[in-house]
Amino acid sequence: MTRTFRNLPLDGGNGDLRSRQWFERRDPDGFLHRSWLKAEGFSDDSFRGRPVIGICNSWSELVNCNVHLRGLAESVKRGVLQAGGFPLEFGVMSLGEALMKPTTMLYRNLMAMDVEESIRSNPLDGVVLLTGCDKTNPASIMGAASADVPAIVVTGGPMLNGHWRGQQLGSCSDCWHLHEELRAGRITEQDWSEIENALSRSHGHCMTMGTASTMACVTEALGLTLPGGAAIPAVDSRRAALAEAAGRQSVELAVRGVKPSHILTREAFENAIRVLHAIGGSTNAILHLLAYAGRVGVDLPLGLFDELCTSTPRLVSLKPSGDYLMEDFYYAGGLPAVMAQIADLLHLDVPTVAGGTLGEAIAGAEIVNPAVIARADAPFDEGGSLVVLRGSLCPGGAVMKISAADPKLLQHEGRAIVFDGIEDLAARVDDPGLDIDASSVMVLRNGGPVGGPGMPEWGHLPIPARLLKAGVTDLLRISDARMSGTSYGAVVLHVTPEAAVGGPLALVEDGDPIRLDVRGRSLDLLVDEAELARRRRSWQPPDSGDERGYRSLYRERVLQADQGCDFDFLRGRSPVVEESVTYLA
To answer: 153 and 78, same structural domain?
Structure first.
């Protein structure tokens, strides 16, 4: 049932549908617009007087997480037609973390531009965003936020749980863990081959609380998708039903003129940050939320993530910060059950695309399995999962997922072992002569937005095989890169400014003492200023090797991690393109 929108500064309405400026005009342009649609087999009754709903589809056979979105698009179309709208599906760039190199993060902004301009330039009154893999979700939302045409998101859902020899496996938290077991000699190549065949049993995104699952939950927390939609498995028939309902609701959003700017308020962002901590979500969500805020003009300082951490309990036990997977999370009550537990910390009066308030969306939600979702009075952790660090090594900030780290390493001082890039790391990490022990601090640089380029997921530095065989299970690791939300360990990420632009990380040398103090939220390079000044005088930026095309543009215009790695020229919203006379021009 469609709810009405209340207390919104709506400026839409039937008289203001954008598509009418294309299809209702009686000049040669209007004639051609209608004629070309009729060339596709549509009659006047298909589109005249109906809200036009674009289905923005990131389907691709290169992206296993999104390969089923064609089917979901049919469900969306069914819902749009039921509500009296006219659906038109269009494809946009698709980003798959598994195959795309060096990282989909390099192309998130490019996809966002594709989405924004596709929406702005076409006769769309509303749009349904079909997303799945890590960066297709934030890229679509960034583009829609800047276009600011009524929009609703349908995420693709997680794949089914993996199973191997009586164990539940999650991609790719168990990939990293079991690869360490292989390198340590505790499982065989035959075991590893069996695991490869058992891990990913269906289409859908990673079923751990990785970045894709995190961003699906964050999207629901922001109010951009229908309640309960984040955790439904990709192959579950209820996801198709959700897509159909979203199609119906997209027509209501278009008619009422409910735009992303009405939904993405400061209060909605605070709700999303609370949820991010409560679910033990991915560090990557910080970058994406910062980018969203820049698109809609909301002041969202990096420090707010840390400020809200200490008062937000972690309530979800999903890998890599727990024992379960997204399929279990859905059956346990899903995100509405989590949000109901922290309702006293949320802004419950904010609107959602469902038509009511957030408070109405989560009313009555209950925990079904307390082993997966804890009550707020008995949390898995009292104070959230993600912290923001400052200090001489990261004056612009760094982030750490403490819920996935060995607690003994949260207060640590050790000597640096420095790697100048991913190739250097790969060449030396398993060298028996590498001077490293369990107290050392592994440092990787030149993995940031400019240095990567694109800030690849290199931050989960592998523990040297010699230490794995000796029983070492965690080391303090620091980089200006990201890591997969499925990863774990005492890993400090997003060090800002990055090494490639001359941040302090560029000056670290082997043997330098580094101190991490999570309680004090500090990360410091314990080298005196005179010595650092001497090193800086001889520092040279690394050679990028990219002198043309998109990668050149990326390096020139990308912002640092504390501003979400968006392009500087994409922050804010653009005027919506309205149809003008072209035939007679």
So the answer is: yes
